[in-house]
Amino acid sequence: MIIERLSQEHRNIEKLLTVLERELQIFDRGDRPDYEVIGAVISYFELYPEVYHHPQEDPVFAKLKIRDPGAAAKVGDLALEHQRGAERLRRVAHAVDGVLADRELLRQDVHAIIHDFIEHERRHIMMEDRDFFPAALKALEPQDWTEVASAMTNPEDPLFSEAAEETFDALRERILQLEHEAEAERHQSSSSASR
């Protein structure tokens, strides 16, 4: 089911937002976060929502606009929301690049940019889970779902292949592994420092 897959993707995205938030807390304490982890999360967000997740949502939303314009209006301008999310992500990437290049940046500015991205992504996901997905499940007819599914599984489209899904799964797992290793390393260095 398309909505189930999109909901699962939201849970996966939330895990990565939590990883980013943890690294931001380390940055806020004045310690050095793991920039490899942060870079991997940014790369994931540059690719996954834009190239994979949003193109699956768009045809569902287009059908919702036809079947229930009122519900679609409540969801709002999904394309604009996604575009703004991409702009926020570019600001995050630029801020992190600035920190790594030792440019003069205020810590609170870097915090605000990353925090803003995390909060907006969470609100966006919550809105889709609360308003968009239930409205689509209620309003779309079986033939709509068939049309949406067949549009997504176009055999010439490598984007929606199982290989693409496996690649993103592997990337997500790698990010979570990097975060786990960074946490273990930080724990080890803090316990050896306290001896």
Topology summary:
Layout: H1 2-28, H2 35-67, H3 69-75, H4 78-100, H5 107-139, H6 142-152, H7 162-193
Helix pairs in contact: 1-2, 1-5, 1-7, 2-3, 2-4, 2-5, 2-6, 2-7, 3-5, 4-5
Largest sheet: none
Low-confidence stretches: 154-160
Q: How many strand units?
A: 0
CATH superfamily: nmb1532 protein domain like
Instruction: Tell me the fraction of residues in β-strands, as a range.
Output: under 5%
CATH C-level class is Mainly Alpha
Return the domain count: 1
For the CA atoms, what is the radius of gyration? 19 Å
Distance between the termini: 54 Å
Could you say what the CATH topology is called? Four Helix Bundle (Hemerythrin (Met), subunit A)
- The helix count comes to 7
Structural class: mainly alpha
Order of helical and strand elements: HHHHHHH
CATH architecture: Up-down Bundle
- On the 0-100 scale, what is the average pLDDT? 87
* Form type: elongated
Helix content: over 70%
Plain-language structure description:
The protein has 195 residues and is mainly alpha-helical. The protein has a single domain, classed as nmb1532 protein domain like (Four Helix Bundle (Hemerythrin (Met), subunit A)), CATH 1.20.120. 85% of the residues lie in helices and 0% in strands. The protein contains seven helices and no strands. Helix 1 runs antiparallel to helix 5, helix 2 runs antiparallel to helix 4 and helix 2 packs across helix 6. The radius of gyration is 19 Å and the shape is elongated. The N and C termini lie far apart (54 Å). About 4% of the residues have low confidence.
